[in-house]
């Protein structure tokens, strides 16, 4: 049986370029489907993909923090 990839709130925050606190709020509000193990939230890749589809967010629209705009 294939096991689905599970992401931490930190990983999701990095992917979406938002704070971990915001990811936890999204989980609590039901905006991002998650499950708890102990007191930590975990998000499946499928759940993140669905969230991104619903909100029309894509990885293309996010810039890594270390890339700066260059003037030509």
From TrEMBL:
The lineage of its organism: Bacteria, Bacillati, Bacillota, Negativicutes, Selenomonadales. This is DNA binding domain-containing protein, excisionase family. InterPro entries: DNA-bd_dom_put_sf, HTH_17, SinI_DNA-bd. GO terms for molecular function: DNA binding. Residues 7-55 form the Helix-turn-helix domain. Pfam families: HTH_17. It comes from the Bacteria. It comes from Pelosinus propionicus DSM 13327.
């Amino acid at each position: 049986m294939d096991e689905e990839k599970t992401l931490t709130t930190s990983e999701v925050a990095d992917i979406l370029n938002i704070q971990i606190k915001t990811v936890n709020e999204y989980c609590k509000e039901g905006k991002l489907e998650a499950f708890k193990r102990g007191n930590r939230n975990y998000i499946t890749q499928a759940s993140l993909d669905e969230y991104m589809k619903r909100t029309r967010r894509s990885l293309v629209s996010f810039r890594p923090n270390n890339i700066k705009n260059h003037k030509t």
